[in-house]
């Protein structure tokens, strides 16, 4: 393990909160409102649309697995990581519009820092057993596409108003004390079971057993995710 990376589950849980819906959604809403206020209407529209499509793809991928058991056993893939997607779609743009609103070169550098932090959120999901590597990497790439599309349409905007600038950063700093919890996993399970008519959600082990793949030792990512979501 690299020395500067977190070494305990508590430290990884603090980092993983940076991708939680309860934190990222208000951060995104405040930042998006600031982009709109700065008259960057095209960038705001692109961000809203691209993030909406990415979130929809994430929900569909999870619903297909939970309700019908549709996944990719060879990749240990049961759906995109929602935490990784949200962190990658929001943090780079937040850093860019706050730290370099009028300088394109610095904007891309600050966005790269946001992408790196989002990658660390993805690593936390693997370390905590909530997702596999394929689910994190694919979600990071999906979020990076949202980020790239938005930044490409962003012009030389004026600095954000204080509400849209200070509050998102304050929320991120408070993540160490705990992020607001939204029971997104429970909602996904209810929707998937309602649509599929299944009595119980499919598990990662079922997908692997059907394909002749076995998992040795420890909690499965699906079980760990359920436990984390219940906290």
Can you give keywords for this protein?
231 residues, disordered C terminus
Describe it.
- The radius of gyration is 18 Å and the shape is globular.
- With 231 residues, the chain is mostly helical.
- The model is unreliable at 214-222 and 225-231 (pLDDT under 50).
- The chain contains 10 helices and no strands.
- The protein has helices at residues 9-16, 21-37, 41-68, 82-99, 104-127, 133-152, 162-173, 184-196, 204-210, 221-229.
- It has one domain.
Topology:
Blueprint: H1 9-16, H2 21-37, H3 41-68, H4 82-99, H5 104-127, H6 133-152, H7 162-173, H8 184-196, H9 204-210, H10 221-229
Helix pairs in contact: 1-5, 2-3, 2-4, 2-7, 3-4, 3-6, 3-8, 4-5, 4-6, 5-6
Can you tell me the overall shape? globular
Total count of strands = 0
The radius of gyration is 18 Å
Q: Averaging pLDDT over every residue, what do you get?
A: 85
Q: How far apart are the first and last residues' alpha carbons, in Å? A: 27 Å
User: What percentage of amino acids are in beta strands?
Assistant: under 5%
N to C succession of SSEs: HHHHHHHHHH
The major beta sheet can be summarized as: none
Number of helices: 10
Taken together, the total number of domains comes to 1
Structural class: mainly alpha
Summarize the structure.
The chain has 231 residues and is an all-alpha fold. 68% of the residues lie in helices and 0% in strands. It has one domain (9-229).
């Amino acid at each position: 393990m690299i020395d500067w990376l977190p070494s305990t589950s508590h430290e990884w849980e603090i980092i993983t909160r940076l991708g939680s819906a309860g934190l990222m959604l208000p951060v995104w809403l405040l930042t998006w409102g600031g982009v709109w206020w700065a008259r960057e209407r095209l960038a705001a529209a692109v961000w809203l649309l691209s993030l909406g499509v990415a979130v929809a793809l994430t929900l569909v991928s999870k619903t297909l697995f939970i309700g019908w058991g549709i996944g990719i056993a060879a990749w240990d893939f049961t759906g995109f990581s929602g935490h990784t997607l949200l962190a990658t779609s929001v943090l780079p743009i937040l850093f860019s519009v706050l730290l370099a609103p009028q300088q394109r070169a610095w904007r891309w550098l600050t966005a790269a820092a946001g992408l790196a932090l989002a990658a660390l959120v993805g690593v936390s999901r693997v370390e905590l057993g909530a997702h596999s590597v394929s689910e994190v990497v694919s979600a990071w790439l999906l979020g990076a596409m949202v980020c790239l599309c938005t930044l490409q349409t962003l012009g030389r905007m004026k600095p954000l108003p204080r509400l849209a600038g200070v509050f998102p950063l304050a929320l991120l700093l408070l993540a160490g004390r705990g992020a607001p919890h939204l029971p997104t996993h429970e909602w996904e399970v209810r929707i998937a079971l309602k649509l599929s008519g299944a009595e119980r959600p499919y598990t990662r082990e079922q997908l692997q057993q059907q394909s002749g793949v076995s998992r040795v030792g420890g909690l499965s990512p699906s079980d760990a995710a359920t436990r984390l979501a219940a906290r």
